[in-house]
Write a structure and sequence with these properties.
By secondary structure, the protein is α+β, with helices and mostly antiparallel strands. 44% of the residues lie in helices and 27% in strands. The strands form two sheets. It has a six-stranded antiparallel beta sheet. It has a six-stranded antiparallel beta sheet with strand order 8-9-10-11-7-12. The longest helix is centred in the middle third of the chain and has 21 residues.
């Protein structure tokens, strides 16, 4: 074994041991002095492209929505910035389609009225990989590498002190996946369009909203990356307004790092099924250490609700 490979093996072993002893780093936050919202906006709009990250369907000043619709908020700012490094992620999705649950992921910002600090952060990449059930060391290293570049940019442009939120373990079923048969008399695109219409209608009835959409296969074609493995690959972002408000607007804006949820839909070319997946909301509870019974019950209810919706649409749990 070469020295480099031996050193890597020792490093992985040490990380495994330290994780078992001290907990798993689930979330990384840069804590900035003062209100740095404008600087953050400048970075995500003017600097992200320099490291191949793209911003899609941002949700800004969600705290204003809480104030207008729910009557009050203790937040100066709450913003969700879904980002993705497509140059890295497109090849990885060919190997691990489950990573669509974090393509894009949220670069989160919040500021409380009660303190003159701005928080900017994201889920740790190893936690994303664990939720998606990706074990391949080759894929994990490539996925994590892009975050090293992102965090370097954040440190350079925003500064601040880095803090981590640690957790003990993920729930038993961190990823919800479903299989849908393809009707032979209907084209794949028509089938997905019909699904989207019904999916949005059922979500809207239950208090959810679609906040974003990305046609990953089309993006791959635009970038000249072969994506012929898939007949289709799409990602939708969605959230439940009332649940989000109950959590983010009542003491846990940091849990917004998980929002909005990314739901991926793909068909392997030539197969007779469509696979749909999304990270369970119960992950939020486990990683963020949320033990409030009412919130826990709401989280489990919404996970059960997603399963119910998928079954109504003709899906089977994988």
């Amino acid at each position: 074994m070469s020295f480099m490979k031996q050193s890597l093996s020792v490093t992985i072993l040490l990380l495994t041991v330290s994780t078992a002893l001290f907990g798993i780093q689930g979330v990384r936050y840069s804590v900035l002095e003062g209100d740095q919202s404008q600087l953050f906006e400048k970075v995500i709009h003017e600097k992200l492209w320099s490291i191949d990250f793209v911003l899609s369907d941002p949700l800004t000043r969600v705290n204003d929505v809480y104030k207008d619709d729910y009557g009050s908020t203790d937040l100066d700012n709450l913003a969700f910035s879904p980002i993705s490094n497509d140059q890295v992620m497109l090849p990885l999705l060919l190997k691990a389609p489950e990573l669509g649950a974090f393509t894009p992921f949220n670069l989160h910002l919040f500021k409380r009225m009660s303190e003159n600090k701005t928080y900017v952060g994201h889920l740790m990449p190893a936690t994303m990989l664990d939720i998606a059930g990706v074990d391949s060391q080759e894929i994990r290293l490539e996925f994590i590498r892009q975050f090293n570049v992102l965090d370097t940019l954040i440190e350079k442009e925003l500064g601040g002190n880095v803090e981590y939120i640690e957790y003990a373990k993920l729930p038993a079923s961190p990823l919800l996946q479903f299989s849908f048969p393809i009707l032979p008399e209907v084209s794949l695109e028509s089938r997905l369009d019909i699904f989207q219409e019904k999916f949005e209608m059922l979500l809207e009835k239950r208090g959810y909203i679609i906040t974003g959409y990305r046609d990953i296969k089309a993006i791959a074609d635009e970038r000249g990356i072969s994506f012929s493995k898939y007949g289709a690959y799409r990602v939708y972002s969605f959230c439940h307004i009332a649940f989000s408000e109950a959590l983010f607007n009542h003491g846990r804006p940091d849990a917004g790092v998980f929002a909005p949820c990314s739901l991926y839909i793909y068909n392997v070319e030539g197969s007779d099924t469509v696979v749909i997946g999304v990270a369970a909301i119960e992950n939020w509870m486990a990683v963020m250490g949320i033990n409030d019974k009412d919130i826990l019950d709401m989280a489990r209810h919404h996970d059960d609700e997603i399963v119910e919706i998928m079954k109504k649409l003709g899906g089977s749990v994988l």
